[in-house]
Amino acid sequence: MMKNMNKNELMQTYIDTFSLCSYFSPALLENLRLKQIEEGEYLVAQGSLLNNLYLLVDGKLQVEHFQQDGSYAVFSIEKAFSVIGDLELFLDIDMYTVSTVRAISKSDILEIPLSKIQQYGFNDPIFLRFICTHLSKKLYASTQLLTNVSLPAFVKVRKYLAIRAEAEGTVIHLEKRDSIAALLGISTRQLNRVLKDLAELSIIQFKNKTVQVLDSDYLSEIKATDFF
């Protein structure tokens, strides 16, 4: 279960680290609560009523959607700083979640009741711009995923590693490979094969969950011949 941490100093550290005072009014800040969930725990379940807006300030969350036949798709792997629940925030109906969100590492989360968002945030242009900015980033990321649907597995993995390397540097700490494979729309076997091929080409070195990029230019330069 989620635990109340009751660590005001830690919460203030997160508020300062992510400059939340620039986007949240004092009334909103007063209603923030700090929670912690363990690896494997669920933050929200698909189809459940959303009662809070969540801010991921440490750790990693996986956003996934389950089909009726039991299959699932990974929409994203969220790292700090990330907003969860913004997509449902403006729906003019009861706000039921469209995805399941679970922790893939121990995570710290700031949460605020939606009733307080409605009371103090819906008429606050600074807060609304903050939400719109994060929605725009998610729309851009989902568009990127859609453009990758028809690409070969080799190109998908190269593009993924190139994006991760640009954001994180040459040493990348991967999540579970089945999660990454589901995110890219390929099988775990295909992912492992591409990683092995890239290692044999001396483009990367990898061991367990750690990938070291040796040739970032190769990863980012996609040629026409790569599609065949």
UniProtKB/TrEMBL annotation:
UniProt cross-references to CDD domains, sorted A to Z? CAP_ED
Q: Name one Pfam family in it.
A: cNMP_binding
Q: Show the GO MF annotations.
A: DNA binding
GO term, biological process aspect, one: regulation of DNA-templated transcription
Give the Cyclic nucleotide-binding domain ranges: 28-119
Looking up InterPro entries in the UniProt record yields: cNMP-bd_dom, cNMP-bd_dom_sf, HTH_CRP, RmlC-like_jellyroll, WH-like_DNA-bd_sf, WH_DNA-bd_sf
Q: Which domain of life is it from?
A: Bacteria
What UniProt keywords are attached to this protein's entry? DNA-binding, Transcription, Transcription regulation
- The entry's protein name is Cyclic nucleotide-binding domain-containing protein
